[in-house]
Amino acid sequence: MIKTHKDLDVWKKSLDLVEFIYRLTEAFPQKEIYGLTNQIRRAVVSVPSNIAEGAARSSEKEFSKFLYISLGSLSEVETQLIIAQRLKYIGNYDDSLLIEIRKMLIGLIKSLKS
Question: Domain 5-113, CATH 3.30.559.30 — does that match?
Answer without folding.
Answer: no
